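Ticket #4471: structure output looks truncated?

Reporter: J.K.
Steps to reproduce: submitted the chain below (432 residues) through the standard prediction queue, then opened the result file.
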Amino acid sequence: MMDKKQYYWIISLDNLAGDDDLRKLPVFQEYLNRAAYCFHVNSIYPSITYPAHTTIVTGLYPVHHGIYNNTLFQPERLGREDWNWKSRRIRGRTLFDLAFEKRLKTAAYLWPVTGGNRKIRYNMPEIFPNRPWDNQILCSLRNGSIHFQLEAFLHHGKEMDGIRQPALDQFLHHVVLDTFMKYRPEVQFIHFVDLDATRHIFGHSSPEAEEALLRHDRRLREIFDLVERMGLMDQTHFVILGDHSSIDEHSIIYLNTLFRNAGMLFLNSDGSVRDWQALSHTCDGSAYIHVRHPEQIAGVRALLEEFSAANGGCIEAVFSGEEARRMGAGPCSLMVEASRGYYFLDAADQEQVIHQIRPEDIGTSPLITRSTHGYSPKKENYQTFFSMMGPRIRQGETEGPMNLTDVGPTIAHLLGGALPDADGSVQMQFFK
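Returned output as attached by the reporter:
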């Protein structure tokens, strides 16, 4: 019997920017000629991976979906915080819920905040062990689909080099192809990180970033060729998108070291936090500031503004907790936005509050980078990308800009459903 099902590929290319010249890439050029697309998509605040990917599947801002940051706020584990791996932390209806209700088989491959999600038939969550007694295989199996992941590791595990790129994305790519050939999930959520990892190490517009885009281009060629060989192209919709852009930086700001020097944060002999009145929780290009006693907020704000003024305006803006909430961010006392070229880290034991990044620093820690994100989506030339291709989709560039909160409702409409409580709206200009 002929397969008449509809198939949907949602492919996230982490850190795909609106200013990436995708027409230079042969497969992307072919894709754009058949797709509807927008190069001016405003991300959310803070514009980092886990809140952004949760916005993609809910249509909600972080303040409403509950994933405020990549990591949890855990003062007792400063520098070793757990990440927002578990799907139970999400508030609101998701595309996974919608697909499950429509009885569509769903697969998710390293998609953030999917740990423990039982509505995903084939689930390989993005998660890693954060305790000395744990290991990667057990951690993944506990939080995803056991037999599916065992099969994937058995057949393609040798392609991995830990979490290093591009090996990890190549492993993932081959798992995706095998899964579609064998199980044909109707809806697939795929999170490729090669470009993001490369930009962190080498810079936003580096030759290495161009090579990462070429690798994505070749992966798309293999995906399209597979769907063509299976005779399913006329039944398949593709959604290819980014979650945020990135900005090159030259200096790190350690606000917790500033608070320690000001007598607002106290460390034990092993470097752990003993007590605090003010604490920074980094989002890279921005940071949540938590102040234990409300009457101290004005003093902390004055400290931050004086520090910035004395250091060339390294902090672009200090927002109140209410202002941050109106921008879609999570609960906090204050929120700070770094000026271009700066970003925040949380270490409280540094000799200097500002550290200028030297070439030899890159690689000494995964936190020390040449390019990062987390900044306000209002930053100039800091948009991301969204596109769709398939039988129901028109062709050509759509009138922008649009917001990342519009992505979830638009995909839900494509799936024949809705996210009625979303902050964004369906972008009907993508549809025929």
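Triage note (M.O.): checked the attachment and the full token line is present. The longest strand covers residues 247-254.
Status: closed, working as intended.
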